[in-house]
């Protein structure tokens, strides 16, 4: 059993799953495994040796202290197990893991050329296109779309725009005319109401009192005239009594005077009856007629104003709607014109042409994913927003990598990388990790993996998108690693296992791989120094 004050104890931090494990081979009973926190990078820590308290002369323990167990019993070396034939003894030694990952070459400057229609919704049929691999200049024609249908749509849109503008202009003229005519009618209705109000007021304050005064004055005149005639008759009768005129003449004069009085009495009666009739019937009827005219003029004015306002509002709403229709028609015409121009696709940059979506094809070409192939020719239909061609330049390239889960913690941004291409043997390129996914976003042999981007410092005239690349990382040496041959480790559904000899029997144990180099594997967890392994059966 090792002493608690023994030399150096090495601590290794390894990532297992989503947490970290520490392995302490110097702990009693073998290695102790437990969670620790940290950045996930491989680290080696050393514990400073402790200095034992000096003993009293004669080897006695200081007073008040119990003798240490190690002082009582000197430590004895534990015998190392001896592996048998076809067995392997797990031991610690320095190890520099190698990390190589496959990926694909991808240009940095990539422009996907897609049809983005604003208005046109018909078929998009390719009329002609440049072949894949063609070198084009900036503003060079890449492909054209059949424009027969969109030209018809353009003519229809132009007709709709012109027709809508004419309808709008006619509505504005009608609004101006109707407003002028309605204002004239309203003005006449207002004058009618004003005259009716004046007539009513005049009748009440002038005509009716004047007629009443005239009637009363006529009655008084009739009464006075009758009184005068009666006085004259009385005087004639007195005069004829004393006169010696013949009876016949006298009777004639008196008869005339009496007849005149009778007529005057009748006239007075007529005047009184006429005055009563005017007061009771005629004047109220005139008053009602004036009031009715005023009410009718008021109602007609209100109706005319209301109907005019409604008619004007309807026309204004129609004009507003037509104005929107004009805007929509003009926008539709402008969009169709832009769509018509877009059907002749031109290259935004000088570069090489690849049919289809180059970025998507490279991404789909990762291990475990299908690699689609797209080739467009005359007569084929394409969809709106579909990437038809891709234009790229050879000025700068990247390598898109797939990092396995067990290697993810060993890769970090800024690491230098050596890149080799299968298509260019014997040549090495240099790069640096510029992107590393924080979560698994791809697969490697049906296992979760992380994508990484390495930006290359050099370029080559032989570079082509999609070439297979291999990135090699320069990792730090692990001074005290458990290293076993690769043939002793088996992979079962993404989990690694070894056969360990325990009490004479072979037992399968899950282990955690920290790194590889050639035919050797660094075991970051699951085994202890001194374990004996046997080959998998």
Structure description:
By secondary structure, the protein is of the alpha+beta class. It has helices at 69-72, 148-242, 247-342, 358-364, 405-408, and strands spanning 10-16, 19-24, 32-35, 44-46, 88-89, 91-95, 98-107, 110-114, 124-129, 135-136, 141-145, 344-346, 351-355, 381-382, 387-392, 397-404, 416-421, 424-436, 442-444, 447-456, 468-474, 478-485, 490-492, 495-502, 505-517, 520-525, 532-534. The strands form five sheets. Strands 5, 6, 22, 23, 24, 25, 26 and 27 form an eight-stranded antiparallel sheet that branches. A six-stranded antiparallel barrel has the order 7-16-20-18-17-21. A hairpin with a 2-residue loop joins strand 1 (10-16) and strand 2. The longest helix has 96 residues, at 247-342.
